Amino acid sequence: MSKSKEQLEIKINKSWCKGCGICIAFCPKKVLGFDDNGKVNMNDRENCIKCGQCELRCPDFAIFLGGIENE
């Protein structure tokens, strides 16, 4: 059973993130940015449309669009 967009959340595995910024460049709503350590961070969770472009474009598989609860 697939989840609705309301049930999805962006999860970032910062230990896998190399800080390349590809996900930030492809985000249509510009809700991603860098934290103080040069890793990707969700800066504006409310405006995220959960399109999945960040997950699709991340070469390091550091971003996952998944359920709110642990899967």
CATH architecture: 2-Layer Sandwich
- Shape by Cα distribution: globular
| Total tally of structural domains | 1
What spatial order of strands do you see in the largest sheet? 1-4
Radius of gyration: 12 Å
Number of strands: 4
- Enter the CATH topology name: Alpha-Beta Plaits
CATH class: Alpha Beta
Q: Main β-sheet, in a few words?
A: 2 strands, antiparallel
Rounded to the nearest angstrom, the distance between the terminal CA atoms is 13 Å
Tally of separate helices: 2
Low-pLDDT sequence parts: none
What percent strand? 15-25%
Structural class: alpha+beta
Could you characterize the architecture of this molecule?
It is a single chain. With 71 residues, the protein is α+β, with helices and mostly antiparallel strands. It has one domain: Alpha-Beta Plaits (2-Layer Sandwich). The protein contains two helices and four strands; from the N terminus they run βαββαβ. It has helices at residues 22-26, 53-57, and strands at residues 8-12, 32-34, 40-42, 63-67. The chain has a two-stranded antiparallel ribbon. The protein has a two-stranded antiparallel sheet with strand order 2-3. Strand 2 and strand 3 (40-42) form a beta hairpin. The protein is globular, with a radius of gyration of 12 Å. The protein starts with 7 loop residues before the first strand and ends with a strand. The relative contact order is 0.33. The model has no long low-confidence stretch (mean pLDDT 90).
